[in-house]
Design goal:
mainly alpha
Length: about 475
């Protein structure tokens, strides 16, 4: 081979490499935008709810809770299914399909003429959002590979904090200018952009996974246990707002936990077995739930307490906003820490931040710092645990590992929002709003479910790839 041929080959290889890098960045950008839309859709309803109920009804009897609960339950149902599809078919197909459904649901929600149609659209939104979250993380994990995955996943975890801030703000602004229906209509062109970018920039995955695992039928029993158990647990936590009462809620929650407990026996296709065994992945799963419990409990109950103490709405909004900013900062820093120092340091730092937030909330001191620490701790812990669960799973289970981590976040979030509210009401005293014993319980949750698992996390980062 002549030197000119060698030179031409080198140039062609370099050009191909630059082209692949460019298309990879486009695909990742589309995944980030899709994730942002899905995350914002989960937070926007609180802002637009009064306008929605005034227009289409549904406010009597607490039925409006289904606009939020329907989204959450559908998201839980769609998440493990999306992980299975990503591993056996193609993350490209999953991402495009989920975004198309999300776009269609946005159109139906914007055109909804009745409360029932709007609830149905929200259920579709939840199904698509669960799939979008999984596909976004899988695409980023695939483009960056195991070596750079932790840092890239930290970038994606920042999206949740950004969405927590932008969702209510954008929802309020759009509703004020154009009306609540345009909160959903603005998704249409953005979803179209995501679909085009992924179709053009993300190549089809190699068919290396077309072996025996891909030929296995859909695990119906495991799916029923996972989705049914999670749904019953979430319904139980929201028993009061959904009209089934405290006894019905308790029964539903216990039945859900029993069903989830059976996943260990039948699991493996939708939820990696190591999540339920005595492994680092199991500790990471527990820490994920605990961190989300503390975070969402803090941003739900703390503002109520601050209002009772006479704090203005603007001051309360600053505290909640700081928690979102803290989440962004915690996620941003964690990727580099995990890559350089392993899982344990960032998990321990995050756990201590969550513990500090719970203690400050319990004493009523420095509420702005309590909110900031809750966000910092959650960002650090969830970004680290996601990287750990993905790293400990074989490449052919990257999708189900990601979906399992996402489902654990949803369960923790729901438990934090509903559980702490009920506990706070049960333990409330008429003598003082400043000393809230529910937050001392939350401090114990931070120690038992986040700090102790963090101390057992591996010092060094390892991958199953």
């Amino acid at each position: 081979m002549t030197s000119s041929a060698v030179g031409a080959g080198a140039v062609q290889q370099a050009t191909s490499g630059r082209s692949a890098a460019t298309t990879g960045r486009i695909a990742v950008g589309a995944a980030v935008l899709a994730l942002l839309l899905a995350a914002m859709d989960a937070t926007v309803m609180g802002t637009v709810l009064p306008s929605v109920l005034k227009d289409v009804g549904g406010g009597s009897g607490g039925g409006y809770a289904w606009l939020v609960s329907g989204f959450m339950l559908a998201q839980v149902s769609g998440t493990p299914l999306a992980g299975w599809v990503a591993d056996r078919l193609d993350d490209r197909v999953l991402a495009i399909g989920a975004t198309v459904v999300f776009l269609a649901a946005s159109v139906v929600a914007g055109l909804a003429g009745s409360f029932a149609v709007l609830v149905a659209a929200r259920v579709l939104h939840g199904l698509a959002a669960g799939a979008i979250v999984v596909s976004s993380y899988v695409i980023v994990g695939r483009v960056f590979g195991p070596e750079r995955r932790a840092k890239a996943q930290g970038m994606l975890s920042m999206v949740w904090g950004v969405a927590a801030v932008l969702g209510p703000v954008v929802g309020a602004a759009v509703t004020e200018v154009w009306g609540w229906r345009w909160v959903f209509f603005v998704n249409v062109p953005l979803c179209a952009l995501v679909i085009i970018a992924i179709a053009v920039a993300l190549p089809k995955r190699a068919t290396a996974k077309g072996g025996q695992g891909a030929r296995l039928g859909f695990p119906v029993v495991e799916y029923a246990l996972v989705t049914g158990g999670a749904a019953l647990f979430l319904i139980g936590l929201q028993g009061g707002s959904l009209g089934i009462g405290a006894i019905g809620g308790t029964i539903a929650a216990l039945a859900g936990l029993a069903a989830l407990g059976l996943v260990r026996r039948f699991g493996g296709s939708l939820v990696p077995r190591q999540v339920f065994a005595r492994t680092p992945s199991a500790a990471a799963a527990l820490a994920t739930i605990g961190a989300c419990v503390v975070m969402y409990a803090t941003v739900t109950v703390l503002p109520v307490r601050l209002a009772a103490l006479g704090m203005s709405t603007t001051e309360i909004a600053v505290v909640v906003g700081l928690s979102a900013v803290g989440w962004v900062a915690g996620s941003a820093v964690t990727g580099g820490l995990v890559a350089k120092h392993g899982y344990r340091p960032s998990m321990v730092i995050g756990a201590l931040a969550l513990l500090g937030s719970a203690v400050l909330s319990a004493t009523g001191e420095l509420p702005w710092l309590a909110g900031t620490l809750a966000g910092l701790g959650t960002g650090a812990v969830t970004a680290t645990t996601l990287a750990l669960i993905q790293d400990q799973s074989p490449p052919e289970q990257l999708g189900v590992a990601t979906s399992a981590a996402t489902m654990l976040r949803n369960i923790g979030s729901a438990a934090g929002v509903n559980g702490i509210a009920a506990l706070s009401a049960a333990l409330a005293t008429s003598s003082s709003h400043r000393d809230n014993r529910a937050f001392w319980v939350l401090a114990a949750v931070a120690v038992l479910t986040v700090l102790l698992p963090a101390l057992s996390a591996p010092r060094r980062r390892t991958t199953a790839a």
